[in-house]
Design the sequence.
């Protein structure tokens, strides 16, 4: 009988890319990010809206699910999944 | 830290020189287009053979943003235009992208007959309950009692249940989502694009500027929160039971997925016979 | 291949002409007195690999033939008065997006439902001005089944050459009249195809024209064209708030027809050499007129016939020149004075006379003869 045991569960990570000047400040990405990693920034973009920025705390990390990049009406945000470390097998 | 970017991976599907689009902050149309392009990316449709046809209105502008052969036609006539396009060139994958008023009021007759004939095309209807571009007038999907600029005392007309209309008219694929159900919507769009025959996807989407403002949902965000609270997924139910009421639940899901010979196949079969 | 001799009605001849011209898509809605065209296309198109579809109405029929044209097919619809009214919306879209297609209107008597089975010629101005906004179309008017065949082929050729909806303005009498039609051998028939872009997609400007008419890339040819009924620039992109773009576009849409009027001119002159009085007519009315002119000549009246085969664009220059030579113009038409307005505009009110019919019957040659005598004697 074989057991597949993960040594450590490593959630995936994502890098968040934002095209600030495309943002119209609808707030969809901030409100509906499953991990709550986004917040409204203080800065104004060219159109006068506040584009989102990351919340920089350890418990709120982007897992690269891509929800923001699907819901953004402005094509202003997308994510890139970071290379996941391969789970090691234990016999 | 977030990374500042200059372009988006989906830009290659867009006429990026026309972005930003004309849609208001909080509008659902950008989201729907976004999901459509994501869906497209995950199918093996040859973009050279994809044609997008729109009618008039805010949704009618979709055709102008996708970087494929695209046709922005007259009010209500996207479906018959698309019919001609598809029948003249069977290689094409034809998608009609339009709004509830365009497809179901002025274009209602065309919609039901294209569905009846089972013309091989995908119709994506963004339903925002009103005529947004012209200023928030009553439409064929405005819920009872909702306010519109031509229904200042509240709507007294019974609205269409679009999925019920599509199913009853003969569509082989019928699904409804809200613009918050982005993943399911994307999957549904993929299914519709891969479906042979007349497929229909309805998306309930916010129009904060023209509809929400008059109906206690002044921002798109509030409308999306409403969808989160009030959407109920019921796959496979009779779409007749999926009416939409002001303040009520929004039933979403895939309602119809059947097989039926298409008009296109029949007409080319007929040509073969006639040429013998 | 040898020439063939057929016995066709005008409607059937027009349908056969369309097939010879390369029409491979027909969308229509049944309406008297044009229905035989749809019926014949339903029978014949599949035999040549084309698609026939009966749409839910004329709005859809017109939209479908535009779509088919962008799908790469030569396309056509056929209708009559009430259906022609419904088609105006998308005739405008066809003019704006420069979509080659042919619309046959077998005219019956109107307005409204009017006299569905009987003749009329009162859609002349509607053909020219039916859709909103400034635009130009081409309209041809056959007066025999032979010409229904010939001019339908010509209509397709002009649609392809000028990228414009071309209207074949038939009438009930010509449409239902049976006569001998000579089908020339294939190699004797001129067929025109739309100009295709020769540059790669990234350099292609879908609405830039060197000589009024831009090259046309259809769906699936890799050019990612955007086609819109909105005011658009040379790239095809909407510019709906820029009067300069509007000016450039509308001027070109009109000028591509106006400035080619001489090339498009198609007039039959009969007994015009020494004529003092000219009958101006078209379609079935020109047949009665021809008989009347023949009869009047036998009685010594110096009268001739100007028969318009191309009705739109109207040959202004031609009439202006004639105004000095001809004493009186008598316009014979089955309406209350539509082509008369055009003649009058060019030769003056004093010289223009009208012999109208309100519809439902054609002119008798003797009525026209009487009018000739009356005008001749200055009454």
Sequence:
């Amino acid at each position: 009988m074989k057991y597949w045991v993960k040594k450590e569960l490593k959630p995936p990570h994502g890098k968040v890319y934002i095209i600030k000047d495309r943002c119209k400040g609808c707030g969809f990405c901030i409100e509906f990010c499953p991990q709550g990693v986004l917040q409204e920034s203080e800065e104004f973009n060219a159109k006068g809206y506040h584009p989102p920025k990351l919340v920089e705390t350890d418990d709120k990390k982007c897992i690269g699910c891509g929800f923001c990049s699907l819901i953004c009406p402005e094509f202003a945000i997308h994510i890139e999944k970071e290379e996941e470390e391969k789970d090691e097998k234990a016999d | 830290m977030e990374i500042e970017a200059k372009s988006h991976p989906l830009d290659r599907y867009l006429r990026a020189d026309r972005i930003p689009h004309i849609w208001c902050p909080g509008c659902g149309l950008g989201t729907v287009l976004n999901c459509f392009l994501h869906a497209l990316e995950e199918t093996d449709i040859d973009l050279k053979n994809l044609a997008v046809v729109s009618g008039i209105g805010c949704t009618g502008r979709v055709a102008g943003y996708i970087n494929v052969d695209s046709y922005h036609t007259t009010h209500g006539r996207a479906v018959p235009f698309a019919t001609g396009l598809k029948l003249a060139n069977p290689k094409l994958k034809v998608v009609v992208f339009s709004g509830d008023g365009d497809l179901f009021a002025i274009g209602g007759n065309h919609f039901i007959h294209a569905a009846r004939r089972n013309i091989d095309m995908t119709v994506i209807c963004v339903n925002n309950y009103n005529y947004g571009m012209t200023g928030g007038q009553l439409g064929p999907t405005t819920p009872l009692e909702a306010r519109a600029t031509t229904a200042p005392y509240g709507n007294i007309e019974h609205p269409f249940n679009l999925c019920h209309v599509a199913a009853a008219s003969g569509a082989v694929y019928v699904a409804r989502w809200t613009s918050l159900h982005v993943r399911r919507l994307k999957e549904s769009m993929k299914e519709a694009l891969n479906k042979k025959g007349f497929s229909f996807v309805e998306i309930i989407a916010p129009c904060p500027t023209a509809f929400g403002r008059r109906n206690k949902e002044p921002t798109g965000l509030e409308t999306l929160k409403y969808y989160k609270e009030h959407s109920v997924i019921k796959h496979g139910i009779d779409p007749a039971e999926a009416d939409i009421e002001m303040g009520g639940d929004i039933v979403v899901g895939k309602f119809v997925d059947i097989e039926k010979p298409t008009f296109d196949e029949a007409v080319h079969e007929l040509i073969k016979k006639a040429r013998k | 291949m040898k020439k063939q001799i057929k016995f066709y009605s005008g409607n059937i001849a027009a349908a056969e002409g369309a097939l010879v011209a390369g029409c491979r898509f027909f969308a229509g809605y049944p309406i008297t007195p044009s229905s035989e065209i749809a019926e014949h296309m339903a029978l014949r198109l599949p035999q040549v690999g084309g698609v026939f579809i009966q749409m839910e109405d004329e709005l859809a029929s017109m939209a479908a033939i535009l779509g088919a044209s962008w799908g790469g097919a030569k396309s056509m619809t056929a209708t009559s008065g009430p259906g022609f009214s419904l088609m105006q919306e998308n005739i405008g879209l066809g003019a704006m997006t420069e979509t080659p297609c042919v619309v046959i209107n077998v005219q019956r008597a109107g307005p409204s439902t009017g006299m569905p089975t009987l003749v009329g010629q009162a859609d002349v101005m509607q053909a020219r001005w039916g859709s909103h906004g400034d635009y130009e179309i081409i309209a041809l008017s056959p007066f025999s089944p032979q010409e229904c065949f010939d001019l339908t082929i010509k209509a397709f050729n002009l649609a392809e050459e000028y990228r414009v909806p071309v209207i074949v303005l038939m009438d009930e009498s010509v449409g239902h009249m049976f006569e001998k039609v000579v089908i020339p051998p294939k190699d004797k028939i001129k067929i025109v195809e739309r100009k295709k872009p020769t540059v790669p997609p990234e350099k292609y400007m879908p609405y830039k024209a060197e000589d009024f008419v831009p090259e046309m890339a259809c769906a699936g040819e890799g050019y990612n064209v955007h086609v819109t009924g909105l005011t658009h620039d040379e790239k095809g992109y909407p510019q709906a708030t820029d009067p300069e773009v509007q000016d450039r576009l509308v001027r070109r849409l009109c000028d591509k027809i106006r400035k080619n009027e001489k090339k498009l001119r198609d007039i039959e002159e009969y007994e015009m050499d020494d004529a003092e009085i000219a009958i101006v007519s078209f379609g079935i009315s020109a047949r009665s007129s021809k008989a009347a002119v023949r009869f009047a000549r036998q009685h010594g009246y110096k009268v001739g016939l100007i028969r318009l085969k191309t009705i739109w664009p109207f040959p202004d220059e031609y009439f202006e020149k004639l105004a000095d030579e001809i004493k009186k113009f008598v316009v014979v038409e089955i309406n209350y004075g539509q082509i008369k307005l055009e003649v009058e505009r060019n030769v003056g009110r004093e010289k223009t006379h009208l012999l109208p019919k309100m519809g439902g019957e054609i002119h008798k040659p003797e009525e026209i003869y009487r009018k000739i005598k009356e005008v001749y004697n200055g009454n």
